[in-house]
Amino acid sequence: MEDDGIRIDKKFSALMPPLTAEEKELLEKQLRDDGCLKPLVVWEEKNILLDGHHRRELCRANGIKPGIKRISFANRDEAEKWIMEHQLGQRCLSPQAISYFRGKLYGVAKHQGEAAPATSGQAAQKQTTAGKLGQRYHVDERTIRRDSDFAKQLDTLAGNCGTEFRTKVLAGDSALTRGKIKELAELPGGQQSKAVEKAEKKPKASKPTREKSSALDALHKAWGNAKEDDRKAFLSEVLEDDGTLNLFEKIGWDVRPVDE
Fold first, then answer.
1. pLDDT in tens, 42-62
2. Strand locations in the chain, DSSP E?
3. Burial (0-12, 13-18, 19+ Cβ within 10 Å), 147
4. How many CA atoms lie within 13 A of 91 on its CB side?
5. What pTM was estimated for this model as a whole?
6. Domain extent listing, the chain
């Protein structure tokens, strides 16, 4: 098939969630039966593909000419931001991918300075970048900041272990917890590849079966019966306890307040 001249950016293409064998087969059948109904999206100024990597590959393999939608962006940050927002609009993302793309979007937004200081007339309405994104995606600021940490940790491991590892995590095919990913990302770069390989091979421990303790049962019932204000007061007290914070850190949750 004639070369369409579209450029593939390796960093952008590495962000695309992979198709399962079943999804690829279904997409190829749809393309053969109906043609490419959804156009490829290309960065106008750089002629770089932003969306439609799988469609383009299958179209080229089957001699199908796809439509092309070109969008103008002033710089790479804007193009990357569009990719993140577009990916977060997809329905089939794993929880890891949702967290990763929110974290990447936070990094891009920070770099663009979207949290510029409010004017005197807007002081009461000032929001942090994390606050704005949290409101958009219905999570709190701390979740956005944890997402950012997760994205950085995963990118660090991808840089030292290969992008295939990141793709596996984003597809939801890795058994590694976020806490384990954080632990691995903090190792010296030269040790990460072997450590990841070892961690991936380690069988996932099965949870021991046990009856629910009376204390846990009582907590569940109390929480279910509590009013919202009582729940908030309880959580505030729990989060002030250093033992609770240490426990959260062990499983990879950072709930300490972080400045912008």
1. 999 999 999 999 999 999 999
2. 40-43, 48-51, 68-71
3. buried
4. 0
5. 0.69
6. 10-72, 88-116+126-201, 215-250
